[in-house]
């Protein structure tokens, strides 16, 4: 009924060659035992005083209502175990320091250019086809390389050369046979240095022939049909990585689509990107131009050079008026003052056309370097934030990203076999690496959906019959399990001041009341209605005064304290962030926002979704499981914890990361969650004060249930495979130490839920997505640790991406069937859906809370929060960097005590 989410933009025969291997993990290395033999002690391991993940407790699950034959975008990799990969450290620095005496940082593009020049100058010593470079400090080679320091001269095409010292130092010889030992179970820790080296080798060919954008590779030219307008294009590429799996080493490759700025002359880009841009009236657009261009990279056309420059800003003076002190490099002519126009004519033989506009400042290290805009071209492959796209462009990007399974499968196979792909060229073969270009075949299991209950109009509960193919239900003639009465509520109509996008309150309010009543949510029929204007969102103090006025007016009507305010907006506005901050940290009042257009349409599905959110926020329960969750059928109190960290945007260098921890507080329903929210060090993934936040939530659980939970399951989101040790030996250790001080010793299980991976599941026959409840726990999973892929939702748009669950610690002795069923069942309890979601709810809720914290922080940075706006007029002129410093203050994020244990975030 409620379309809550859409998909994102994420056995073969051996070849038989004697000198190639494809290792399969032997059965003897996996504990072979029945579920009754599983005891907690087998899953709790410490080696050298460090926690390590548990082994898989069995050979995989057995429960299924049917099985499905699948293709997976894992391509088996064959390698020569006798290969030795040389690992070398490359240190590059300028021979002469800059004028201020400092060694300026060299850009990644310049590092690659310097390496390429050295290798092309000395091809016998440094054969390109036998080496792979990560673009920074590491070179991997299939043959021994000479070590020492080499000089490389790079010409800037302006009669100037820069000399670099390239120091090459041997780090180690990576013996690929150790990877074989890992797959055979002889060593427990994965040889990450070898995997890193092989991964760089697999990236070398696409890095030479394509544009590298973060971890993605994209073609130099975009398809004209993928133009998004405004100088932006959709670029179709791929990302890939090597993975150790039960079938051996595999390369996982997935299709990706990014919005990028087109490779255009800067002036032409501005004409396409800025509405109404007129170079003849540049002053009117100056501020916008500077905002659009700042920090973008450009190349120049007035001289021959491969250098790329970052735009610092615009010159204060127009091009015709810029002059500077010129010093002849030869020293034969005394220094003199020259105009930029004359310099370009005499030096480069070019005539500057646009004299009445500023130049671009391409300087480094606080040194100005003015270049006329007409000689600058945007460097290819610069990513454009998808959130900044217009509506039509955003929909087009989404359509291209959400390729249906047959199309995505074909694209992936084409990319694997392409000459520009990871196996094109000679590099990988020279390292003894080959690939099977066929997708991995695997058999998946579809597990049964749980039995659910809803409320009944006649009282009591109504069991819900679930179609396992669709796993969706509707609320026609049904009620929520527990409807929370709403006696004091108000409608704050910000659309009232708009002519074309205003709410019709006499239609919307009665319809919402009727829909709530049908769902079993008693709601008073006479709310306080307050008209307002969208202009209120532009000023934080005015917004606070508006909300206070509504509260005061409701009290004058005898309503007492409001339970919720329905806020109607004409459009999405940044002031929404400030509204949430005011209500959730200062006032302690739940709000539910909606758009006037949707509210006026008042479709039954929309109203039901609105009512479900309102009920969950106020403490009601929409749907519950009939049976207790697996492994806990016999009783005991259980708490589910979800944790996530939200990091600032990549270009942001100062703002805090936001850590969120949520926990279930009702048992056995496990449908109500409380949240804790804190800022922490910039881009730090490990959660600060994790144990403290968890103990706070345990105490909340104890107040509600009369006792602490005996079992705690922690679901951690957002960590990569390389960060598993951090979760185990920092976060888990902190939780246990804090619990120990509180004389609290529950059994604990820690599970990482990953959605940021490239694994995709395709039906071997058929064009649709895999059915909900599809589990894969063989072949493509970890060689011996306890993990599995679960696709818990029904993919309607695009290709379904399963969630990868990896057990890092288990004191409960879960079997595969028990844990897979428990997680799948929990996915049906998400508060605002009438279908299972793709991610276990504790993690989904933690993600929502962390994002809410980011909204609070953005309200402060934008000068929109009352804490920022009410200080003084001079405070409003503070720089954003000052605001970023203030945003580390924990008090700014502290939830009001009236909401700290409520689901305000759904």
From TrEMBL:
It holds the Pfam family ArgoN. InterPro entries: ArgoL1 (IPR014811), Argonaute_Mid_dom (IPR032473), Argonaute_N (IPR032474), PAZ_dom (IPR003100), PAZ_dom_sf (IPR036085), Piwi (IPR003165), Piwi_ago-like (IPR045246), RNaseH-like_sf (IPR012337). PROSITE patterns: PAZ (PS50821), PIWI (PS50822). GO terms for biological process: defense response to virus; regulation of translation; regulatory ncRNA-mediated gene silencing. Residues 265-380 form the PAZ domain. GO terms for molecular function: RNA binding. Residues 564-858 form the Piwi domain. Keywords: Repressor, Ribonucleoprotein, RNA-binding, RNA-mediated gene silencing, Translation regulation. SMART domains: DUF1785, PAZ, Piwi. Belongs to the argonaute family. Ago subfamily. This is Protein argonaute, N-terminal.
């Amino acid at each position: 009924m409620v379309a809550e989410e859409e998909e994102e933009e994420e056995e073969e025969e051996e070849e038989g060659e004697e000198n190639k291997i494809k290792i399969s993990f032997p059965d003897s290395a996996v504990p072979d035992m029945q579920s009754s033999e599983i005891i907690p002690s087998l899953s709790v391991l410490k080696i050298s005083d460090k926690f390590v993940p548990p082994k898989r407790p069995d050979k995989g699950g057995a429960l299924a209502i049917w099985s499905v034959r699948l293709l997976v975008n894992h391509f088996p990799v064959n390698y020569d175990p006798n290969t030795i990969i040389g690992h070398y450290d490359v240190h590059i620095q300028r021979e002469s320091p800059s004028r201020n005496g400092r060694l300026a940082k060299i850009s990644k593009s310049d590092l690659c250019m310097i390496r390429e020049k050295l290798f092309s100058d000395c091809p016998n010593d440094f054969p390109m086809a036998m080496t792979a470079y990560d673009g920074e400090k590491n070179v991997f080679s299939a043959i021994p390389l000479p070590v020492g320091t080499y000089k490389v001269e790079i010409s800037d095409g302006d009669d100037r050369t820069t000399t670099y010292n390239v120091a090459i130092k041997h780090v180690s010889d990576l013996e690929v046979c150790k990877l074989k030992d890992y797959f055979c179970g002889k060593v427990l820790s994965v040889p990450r240095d070898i995997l890193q080296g092989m991964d760089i080798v697999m990236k070398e060919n696409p890095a030479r022939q394509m544009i590298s954008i973060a971890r993605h590779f994209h073609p130099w030219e975009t398809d004209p049909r993928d133009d998004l307008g405004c100088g932006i294009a959709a670029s179709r590429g791929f990302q890939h990585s090597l993975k150790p799996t039960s079938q051996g080493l595999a390369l996982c490759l997935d299709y990706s689509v990014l919005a990028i700025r087109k490779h255009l002359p800067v002036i032409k880009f501005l004409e396409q990107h800025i509405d109404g841009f007129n170079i003849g009236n540049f002053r009117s657009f100056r501020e916008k131009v500077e905002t659009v261009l700042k920090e973008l990279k450009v190349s120049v056309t007035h001289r021959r050079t491969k250098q790329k420059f970052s735009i610092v800003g615009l010159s204060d003076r127009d091009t015709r008026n810029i002059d500077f002190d010129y010093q002849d490099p030869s020293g034969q002519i005394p220094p003199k003052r020259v105009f930029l126009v004359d310099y370009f004519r005499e030096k480069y033989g070019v005539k500057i056309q646009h004299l009445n506009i500023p130049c671009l400042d391409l300087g480094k290290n606080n040194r100005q370097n003015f270049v006329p805009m007409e000689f600058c071209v945007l460097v290819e492959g610069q990513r454009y934030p998808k959130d900044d796209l217009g509506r039509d462009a955003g929909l087009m990007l989404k359509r291209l990203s959400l390729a249906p399974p047959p199309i995505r499968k074909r694209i992936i196979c084409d990319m694997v076999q392409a000459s520009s792909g990871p196996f094109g060229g000679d590099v990988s073969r020279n390292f003894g690496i080959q690939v099977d270009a066929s997708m991995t075949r695997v058999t998946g299991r579809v597990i049964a959906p749980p039995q659910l209950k809803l409320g009944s109009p006649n009282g009591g509960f109504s069991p819900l019959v679930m179609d396992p193919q669709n796993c969706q239900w509707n609320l026609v003639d049904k009620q929520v399990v527990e409807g929370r009465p709403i006696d004091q509520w108000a409608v704050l109509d910000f659309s009232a001041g708009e002519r074309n996008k205003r709410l019709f309150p006499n239609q919307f309010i009665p319809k919402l009341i009727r829909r709530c009543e049908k769902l079993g949510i008693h709601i008073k029929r006479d709310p306080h209605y307050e008209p307002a204007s969208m202009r209120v969102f532009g000023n934080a103090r005015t917004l606070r005064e508006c909300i206070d006025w509504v509260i005061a007016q409701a009290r004058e009507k005898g309503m007492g304290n409001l339970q919720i305010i329905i806020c109607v907006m004409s459009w999405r506005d940044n002031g929404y962030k400030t509204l949430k901050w005011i209500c959730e940290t200062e006032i302690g009042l739940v709000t539910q926002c909606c758009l006037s257009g949707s509210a006026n349409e008042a479709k039954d599905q929309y109203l039901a979704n609105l009512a479900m959110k309102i009920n969950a926020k106020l403490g009601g329960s929409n749907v519950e499981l009939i049976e207790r969750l697996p492994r806990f059928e016999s009783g005991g109190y259980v708490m589910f914890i979800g944790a996530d960290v939200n990091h600032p945007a990549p270009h942001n260098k100062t703002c805090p990361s936001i850590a969120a921890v949520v926990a279930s507080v009702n048992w056995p329903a496990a449908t109500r969650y409380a949240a804790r929210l804190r800022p922490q060090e910039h881009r730090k993934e490990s959660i600060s004060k994790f144990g403290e936040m968890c103990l706070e939530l345990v105490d909340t659980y104890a107040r509600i249930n009369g006792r602490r939970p005996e079992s705690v399951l922690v679901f951690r989101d957002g960590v990569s495979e390389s960060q598993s040790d951090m979760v185990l030996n920092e976060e888990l250790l902190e939780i246990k130490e804090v619990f120990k001080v509180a004389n609290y010793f529950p059994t604990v299980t820690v599970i990482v839920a990953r959605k940021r991976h490239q694994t995709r599941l395709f039906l071997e026959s058929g064009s649709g997505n895999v059915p909900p409840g599809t589990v894969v726990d063989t072949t493509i999973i970890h060689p011996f640790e306890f993990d599995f892929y679960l696709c818990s939702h029904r993919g309607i748009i695009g290709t379904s991406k399963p969630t990868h669950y990896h057990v890092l610690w288990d004191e409960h002795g879960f079997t595969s069937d028990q844990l897979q069923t428990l997680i799948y069942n929990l996915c049906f309890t998400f508060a605002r859906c009438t279908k299972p979601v793709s991610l276990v709810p504790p993690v989904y809720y933690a993600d929502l809370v962390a994002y809410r914290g980011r909204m609070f922080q953005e309200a402060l940075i934008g000068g929109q929060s009352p804490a920022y706006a009410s200080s003084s007029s001079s405070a409003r002129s503070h720089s954003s960097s000052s605001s970023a410093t203030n945003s580390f203050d924990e008090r700014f994020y502290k939830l009001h005590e009236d909401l700290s244990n409520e689901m305000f975030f759904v």
